[in-house]
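User: I'm preparing a small set of examples for a lab meeting where we compare how different chains pack in three dimensions. I only have the primary sequence for this one, and I'd like the structure in token form so I can line it up with the others. Please keep the answer compact; I'll paste it straight into my notes.
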Amino acid sequence: MAYEIPVTQARAELAELINRVVYGGERVVVTRHGKPLVALVSAADLERLEAAAGQAAAEEPADGEEIISTVSRLGNGDTGTGWSEPRRYGLTAEHRDPGTG
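Assistant: Understood. Below is the structure token output for the 101-residue chain.
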């Protein structure tokens, strides 16, 4: 669990906060009006976070790639409903004037 401290207090205690992070292994969350603003983490923690983010980005498909492959799988071959051809689906939209109810 991270130690939370208001930004005004953090300004006055920056050296102590750095020591808590580096030597105490703590994570410090600086808040403003009770909402998290920034976090102080050790350089080792930052390296681990960046490595994990890089690994997650490498494993994720490009935007839309997963959706396209899923739709392709659903649209190809027999679906078990007696249809051997891919079906085509369309989208329909209707605009209604809010004043006509």
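A couple of notes for your slides: The CA atoms of residues 43 and 49 lie 10 Å apart. The radius of gyration is 26 Å.

User: Perfect, thanks.
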